[in-house]
Amino acid sequence: MKRIKIIALILLMIGFQNAKSQIYVPEKINPKATKTYEQSIEYLKDGDLIEAIPLLQKSIIQDTNYVDAILSLAGVYGQLKKHDLSVQFYELAKRKDTTYFKQYHLPYSINLAGQGKFEEALAAVNYFLSVPKISDRSIKSGNYRKRCYEFAIKFKQEHPEIGLDFSPINLGDSVNSERSEYYPNISIDDSLLVFTRRGEGIREEFMQSKINHQQYGAATFIKGDINNEASKGAITMSADGEWMIFAGNFGKVKGFGDFDLYISYYTPEGWSEPENLGPNINTDFWESSPSLSPDKRILYFSSNRYGGVGGKDLYYSVRQANGKFGEAINMGDSINTAGDEYAPYIHPDNKSLYFTSDGWPGYGGADLFIMRRDKDGYWGLPENLGYPINTVNEDAYIAVSADGKTAYYASDRSDSRGGLDLYKFTLPKYFQPARTLYVKGKVFDKKTNKGLPSTIELIDNSTAKVLMKIQTDEVGEYFITLPTGKDYTFSVNRSGYLYYTEQYSLTNLYADSTYKKDIALESISLNKVVTFKNIQFQNNAFELLPVSLIEIDKLYQILVDNPTLKVEINGHTDNIGKASDNEVLSNNRAKSVVDYLIQKGISSKRLSFKGFGATKPITDNTTEAGRAKNRRTEFLIVSL
User: Which residues form the domain of 303?
Assistant: First the structure.
């Protein structure tokens, strides 16, 4: 409050509203003001901006015509991102001497843009570029800012639906400190925040804060060997909470050179000793800012290795059947630029990728972007998150909660405890990821309970296309996203075992929630009877509906993988109607399945069919629910 009163007093004393332009003569400045100003410069040389402010204010009070002191104070407020105060003092200096102020139109424009006044900023920088005999460096800087302001004006015109309601909330003293905090990562159930904190010298610490009813617990060191090494950096947590992947510079003994990516596993005693992810990921260049897809199948990261598009590029690596990550692949020049792309964050919806770039058009410095993967698996072009999320300053390190509504990022805003702090804000709907269900569980042998590495497919029922195909980990555990708004078939396959399928109708299920589904697979055995879960026919007809082919194709694959296997397709009905008609209908329905398999290439010698009508019910026919269960199609393994 005292500082605000001093600023108001300064502006009142020198007639902020009525100051008239005059010629500024530095030689005529009060010597006392000059001496005070020189004292403030010593603080500024050491980077002590806060300590310099009272001295700059005092020097202006001692001589209200001291334009250099006014300009210096405007510059300090600009560096502290107090853009409103910076603009006020720049405008005051301009009114004191418009000629002397000419070359200050560039920083003035930056602070106007910091307030979101991009049209005024553009006018100011255009004036700056018209000043004669400015240096080539100044022209380059001016043209860069001009492009930024023009982008901002155009973006606002093209995106009227994106409002300016932006109120980032500092996560407070429980999370933030006088040191910098950055690289936030949030668990899928929004119960744990992990991040990096700058320590002494090169040391960086991995921290965590438990979240309870949107209250952030006191940040503590992440336990285990993960924090032993000093030189660390960005960190990401797997959606299931079992893995941490992070960047570390541990020297040639443990690494390949510069920063490498390492993995640590959760144990009851804490996080395990980090393991280098190996030469498919790491090089003797810089690798950092990892982000792991929710199914743990794809690792995204940034590297400045030789052969990229620009400085730092985004790469990805797909985890192989043996559990190791494959060769890193550059994401290409439709994403990477001649500048730097880093800090990727793949949302749990598995198709919204947020990242930081200074190479794409933006507001200045580095901006935050989003790109989305379409239904065919191709990435769209990056989209700037717009003002006021992005500003004239560097904006980086974003993470988004599972429900897509809350975003976290690092910034050194004016209310920072020191350096970069972590903030949260409501993400505009335009940039929110898809609403998604999350299913996790384990695939295991029904008899032995042993985990089974298996292939899991997510199939769109309306198109019968595979939307997602993942491999469980080495012990059969999986995590898969199910985008809402459609019906899907969830299929699990493993050689030597019967397939598993289940339909997911997501219309009425609550999105942004995690469901657990453990799946027991049965080995292929003689005389085993399997009921199709999703064979559908028209009422009193035997023509297969398209959705039926999804499951029949799984039987087809079993027959391909086991070339000596023979099966019998059996059809059953309820007891409604004549027994003879039901027998014919069930026989024709079974035959339809056989005909489809023969058409796909399976030998007729390996297939047979039979209709039983209503003679073999599995439950009571007195209710519709019971009759629905009795209307079924099965296959019987008759020979191995």
Answer: 174-431
Reported as half-sphere exposure (CB side, CA atoms, 13 A), residue 298 has a value of: 20
Considering the domain boundaries, does residue 168 fall inside one? no
Type of residue found at 26:
P
Query: Are 451 and 476 a contacting pair, CB within 8 Å?
Result: yes
Question: Would you tell me how many other CB atoms lie within 10 Å of the CB of residue 520?
Answer: 15
Which residue spans within 132-284 are E strands per DSSP? 169-170, 181-186, 192-198, 204-212, 215-216, 220-221, 232-237, 243-248, 260-267, 270-271, 275-276
Tell me the C-alpha distance between 403 and 408, whole Å. Answer: 13
Q: How far apart are CA 537 and CA 548, in angstroms?
A: 8
Is the distance from CB of 518 to CB of 441 less than 8 angstroms?
A: yes
pLDDT tens-place string over residues 437-494: 778 889 999 999 999 988 888 888 777 777 777 778 778 888 877 777 677 888 888 8
Final residue belonging to a domain, choices 99, 130, 158 = 158
pLDDT digits (tens, 9 = 90+) for 208-228: 999 988 899 999 999 988 988
In the structure encoding, which two tokens stand for residue 17, read together? Answer: 């509203």
Does the model's pTM come out above 0.85? no
Any domain includes 165: no
**First-to-last CA distance in the chain?**
86
**Under 8 Å between Cβ of 516 and 441:** yes
| 502 touches 551 (CB < 8 A) | no
Helices (H), 567-608: 579-599
Measured CA to CA, the distance from residue 285 to residue 347 in angstroms comes to: 27
Question: 284-298, 348-362, 390-404, 487-501: lowest mean pLDDT where?
Answer: 487-501
